[in-house]
Amino acid sequence: MTATGEPLLAVRDLRVVIGGRHILHGVDLDVADGGVTALLGRNGAGKTTTVRAVLGLVPRSGSVRFAGLETVRLATHTLVRRGIGYAPEDRGIFAGLTVAENLRLAERPGAGEPAYRLVHELFPELKARAGQLAGTLSGGQQQMVAIGRTLLNGNRLIIADEPTKGLAPRVVTEVARVLERAAQAVPVLLVEQNLALVRRLAGPCVVLADGRTAHSGPAAELLADAEASRRLLGVARHLPSSAEPLGGSTVPSRSPGGPPRAVPAAGEAAG
Ligand SMILES: Nc1ncnc2c1ncn2[C@@H]1O[C@H](COP(=O)(O)OP(=O)(O)OP(=O)(O)O)[C@@H](O)[C@H]1O
Ligand SMILES: [Mg+2]
Fold first, then answer.
1. Second label for 96, Cα 20 to 30 Å away, from 28, 104, 190, 230?
2. String of DSSP letters for 210-253
């Protein structure tokens, strides 16, 4: 809760139509003012679109209150200046630039002195590897850069979209530590399919299905409920135990072997 008693981010009835197609039709989402809130759902459920709509990167309607103020009509740059840091699904790292250069590019004019002390305190490796080309870092180290960038500007909320996607189990554990450390400093909205990671990090969770909020409540409760997990996330017999390595159980695709999803990288506002 913020000082006003509201959640840090309160999304109500968020709707997105792209190219005449209704992608989101009623997403409700609260992000607590501390720790990790998880946004879950199968492939194509609308998680990334929700995050992009919150940030104003796609046309949207509904209500998005951030830190007590309505932002649904604000441009992305204005909203971001109010204190939202975003680590996108593809990380958005410049492989041909050094770690230090990647961080320097994230400095935001007017946001005060960049918080290098905090970033280097949380991720000493970034200091040690300042001169290394980001493209030569491990997946876990690249996530440190991606998350580190969001911590530079005194943000009040960090949104991380599937930071463990495509990473080996050992690296997932490394990323879990990265997120844990970040969440000690700033509240995190974590989009994730790795349920072992969610179990380890998340307090509250929200589950999307077909562009709507299908469930919200404590993540631990959902993951302890095999029937609800199966219905909402599609995981059947096997749910991660707290002792299990983080590379374990993930939310399966909605239609294994089904037609591939088209997610155009550009031209989203078209049509
Ligand atoms: N720009 C777009 N144009 C058309 N359809 C889109 C666009 N972006 C997303 N979609 C569609 O909207 C739905 C939700 O996509 P989204 O990427 O938000 O899902 P997701 O939950 O993030 O999935 P994943 O787990 O695979 O990342 C999908 O059916 C997707 O194909
Ligand atoms: Mg996504």
1. 190
2. TTEEEEEEEHHHHHH-HHHHHHHH---S----TTS-TTS-BPPP
